[in-house]
């Protein structure tokens, strides 16, 4: 969620007492689906917001709409600033100003924790490679958030991708939300590592303070980590020219495996595509036909040409109008 939307929703609730998703959508110029998702996220994060069904239903602040932002509890303040953490869309001057106003509105004891929480999360809205699938928050997310914000060293129970269970002591440095999947970025005896929160089996503070490497910046670290993972997951890179209408289809099919470049001289747009291997990527984009022309690699062009020949042979009509091959 963008921090400026979060602030605006809270202020709308405080001013009106009750709002509907449609009203929020109209005020913030977003879709009703986005507004509903934002409202649900605020409530699930532990802020004093609840939904009411029925004819006069909508979303309300606990206390009949008279809740003051300065009355947030420590947990609510942490949840708010975790949701408002840095993301590709939230580094604007307006967002920074909104966060500063919120910090000033909090009681003095909560300010340090709120500021720590705002730097504890990086939000990467797109999932790995494809369209992000919504998932419920993992059970141990709150415990991990607390460890990060409070700088608690933890003993982590974890199950690897290969289903091997491990127990290790780690230094929590930050959380990253990739689509709807949460990751802990932590320092370990073997260096910087990431752990999926939904694979954690236990999170226990050791009683020691987590040690933060000098100069560590969560956003920079996560970019390096995610770029490396993306390269391993989708090692094939292709360049292509696409018509403007084809770009939306590419994004729908490939998700964030599409990068848009400059316009070419013939009205098409240069794009970069990523895939796991030639056969898979060719199958994903073959349906676009002439709306997308692959420039390289040559093996992808050849695979598309072969697919085209096979399709023509299978579906072309003979002189009698019957389907068949020759």
What this model shows, in words?
- This protein folds into 3 domains: 115 residues, Arc Repressor Mutant, subunit A, CATH 1.10.10; 92 residues, Roll (SH3 type barrels), CATH 2.30.30; 81 residues, Alpha-Beta Plaits, CATH 3.30.70.
- The protein contains 11 helices and 13 strands.
- The chain has 326 residues and is α+β, with helices and mostly antiparallel strands.
- It is 40% helix and 26% strand.
- Helix 4 runs parallel beside helix 6 and helix 10 crosses helix 11.
- Strands 4, 5, 6, 7, 8 and 9 form a 6-stranded mixed β-sheet that branches.
Task: Write a concise keyword list for the protein shown above.
40% helix; Alpha-Beta Plaits; 326 residues; 6-stranded mixed beta sheet; globular; SH3 type barrels; 3 domains; 4-stranded antiparallel beta sheet; 13 strands
